Amino acid sequence: MDISLFINDLPNKKDTRCFSTQDASGSTSQAAGIVEGMEAGTKLLLLDEDTSATNFMVRDPFMQDVISREKEPITPFLERARDLYEKAGISTILVAGSSGAFFHIADTVIQMDSYKALDITKKVKALCQKYPLFHSPAPAFIMPEYSRIMTAPALKGDSYKELKLKVYGRDSFSLGKETIDLRYIEQLVDSEQTAALGQLLKYARENFIDNKKSLSQIIALLEKKLEKEGLTGICSSSYTPCGLAMPRRQEIYSCFNRYRR
User: Fold this and answer.
1) Minimal CA–CA distance to 147: which of 240, 35, 21?
2) Coil, strand, or helix at residue 45?
3) How far apart are the C-alpha atoms of 138 and 145, rounded to whole Å?
4) What is the β-pairing status of strands 110-113 and 116-119?
5) Most exposed among 132, 170, 235, 236, judged by the fewest C-beta atoms under 10 Å?
6) H or E stretch including 179?
7) Other CB atoms within 10 A of residue 169 CB
């Protein structure tokens, strides 16, 4: 994954334009998640400060003085959010409760007061004058490259066992010996969506993944197939589409991104 928009100059000299690891930090995971969303064509990011990596989101002026930018591999989300909107057309809704730094770049500030939503933008913008935001210039905004090739070993004679599909409720399914964990795809609401994702991955494994096509090309082919034939087009004869529900393209990307094979 190209996470260089947020992560650069790692101590181990790993190239963050083509980054891969099985031991990701919280900040690296969040950077990858956002770039995956960008690749899937999202136009809105929903972020909760409580469940975000703190050092990925913001670095206060004191920390910037203590640790200079050339010693810090992370470009915080605070320094990318405006560019994401202005240069990539991606808005952000951020739920925040501890850092006021985001007030400086927010277009609208909503306060929850006894379960009522109050627009306090004007008040907050006036207060921002009293608490100026200082940060050193961020590196240039460069869109990530989306050129990942999906690879998989050739199917053997007994491909039925290798691609046997089993769905475990809403949170996961197995394809052959590998389990695809979808617990953190929180927008999935029904196990029938998970079943459809399993069928889509199985169909792609049988027909499209050839060590040449990129992830985006494969999902585009699947979308074309679904548009023309519906869910019936990606089902084997032993599986009827009545137990499937159509996922969005973002869920398809999220599923395929979690296929370790």
Assistant:
1) 35
2) strand
3) 19
4) antiparallel
5) 132
6) strand 178-181
7) 11
Using CA atoms, how far apart are residues 222 and 97, in angstroms rounded to an integer?
A: 41
Which residue type, as a one-letter code, is found at position 186? Answer: E
Cβ(172)–Cβ(260) below 8 Å: no
**H/E element, 84:** helix 81-88
CA distance 153 to 204: 13
Say if residues 92 and 84 touch (Cβ distance below 8 Å). Answer: yes
Collapse the DSSP code of 254 into the 3-class scheme (helix H, G, I; strand E, B; otherwise coil) and give the result: helix
Averaged pLDDT, groups of 10, the chain, 261 residues long? 92 88 90 95 94 89 74 90 95 93 94 96 94 81 91 74 89 94 92 96 93 94 95 74 86 93 73
Structural tokens at position 178 = 């590998």
Instruction: Identify residue 56 by its one-letter amino acid code.
Output: F
Question: Which of 6, 35, 81 is closest to 253 using CA atoms?
Answer: 35
- The tokens of 212 are what? 């040449």
Q: What angle do CA 187, 189, 195 make, to 5 degrees?
A: 105
Instruction: Please report how many Cα atoms fall inside a 13 Å half-sphere around the Cα of residue 193, on the Cβ side.
Output: 19
| Rounded to 5°, angle at Cα 43 from 41 and 47 | 110
pLDDT tens-place string over residues 127-162: 998 988 877 778 899 999 998 998 888 777 666 677
